[in-house]
Amino acid sequence: IQTTQSPSSLSASVGDRVTITCRASQGIASYLNWYQQKPGKAPKLLIYAASSLQSGVPSRFSGSGSGTDFTLTISRLQPEDSATYYCQQSYSIPLTFGQGTKLEIK
Amino acid sequence: EVQLLESGGGLVQPGGSLRLSCAASGFTFSSYAMSWVRQAPGKGLEWVSDISGGGDSTYYADSVKGRFTISRDNSKNTLYLQMKSLRAEDTAAYYCAKKIGGISSGFDYWGQGTLVTVSS
């Protein structure tokens, strides 16, 4: 199953609403997870099962979707949200990640 | 507090072998599937291998099948990745990651990564 993210990069301002999309090449129900990775650090789980917020993650992050189309939304962008974001399907082996979306804060 | 600490990375020649370890603490290790995920320099994340909580089921990416072996010692709370016939394209930071639950779940905790460099 291929997972395709868009856009590959974006630039937004503090306070903006940002949406990143992930499309699976076939239906994966809600087996979709989102991660944030900052330079030199390990990835961090933000959203699991498409829409469940991981404990400790700010509520400005949210996820939606099922089947083949999914979105990660950051409702009010903060400076610390500058990072690369990855989606990942856990529906079937081989597990696959999207190619990443690099988010820059203007 | 969940902690995952990888070790064993380093410089190895093409065709060589290396064994990575991941020491886990802060959770009931045997109750969770575990994974290895790698990231080549400047590139995205690539899933490498999964193992079930009991160690009886293992899964591999096609790129490493037949060369890498995942295993675990639940008595020592340690995950392993034995890597053989290493290639330049295996150069990456290798992360061990804990699954939220079973095989079909995301990764809720990650180690800091250990760098493997395959070069002559």
Whole-angstrom Rg of chain A: 13 Å
**Beta strand % of chain A:** over 45%
Oligomer: heterodimer
Which class best fits the helix and strand makeup of chain B? mainly beta
Q: Termini of chain A, distance in Å? A: 34 Å
Strand content of chain B: over 45%
Helix-strand string of chain B: EEEEEEEEEEE
Percent range of helical residues of chain B: under 10%
Main β-sheet of chain A: number of strands, strand sense, barrel status?
7 strands, mixed
What average pLDDT do the residues of chain A reach? 97
- Protein chains sharing the most extensive interface: A-B, 23 and 23 residues
| Major sheet details of chain B | 7 strands, mixed
Shape of chain A: globular
Overall helicity of chain A? under 10%
Query: pLDDT below 50 for ≥5 consecutive residues: which ranges of chain A?
Result: none
What low-confidence regions of chain B span 5 or more consecutive residues with pLDDT below 50? none
The first-to-last residue Cα distance of chain B is: 40 Å
Task: Please count the beta strands of chain A (DSSP E, at least 2 residues each).
Answer: 11
Any overview of this molecule?
The complex is a heterodimer of chains A (106) and B (120). By secondary structure, chain A is mostly beta strands. Chain A is 0% helix and 51% strand. Chain A contains no helices and 11 strands. In chain A, the strands form 2 sheets. In chain A, strands 2, 4, 5, 6, 9, 10 and 11 form a 7-stranded mixed beta sheet that branches. Chain A has a 4-stranded antiparallel beta sheet with strand order 1-3-8-7, with no helix packed on it. Chain B contains no helices and 11 strands. Classes of the chains: A mainly beta (106), B mainly beta (120).
Short summary:
The complex is a heterodimer of chains A (106) and B (120). Chain A is 0% helix and 51% strand. Chain A has no helices and eleven strands.
For this entry, give a set of tags.
heterodimer; A: 106 residues; mainly beta; 7-stranded mixed beta sheet; 4-stranded antiparallel beta sheet; B: 120 residues; 51% strand; globular
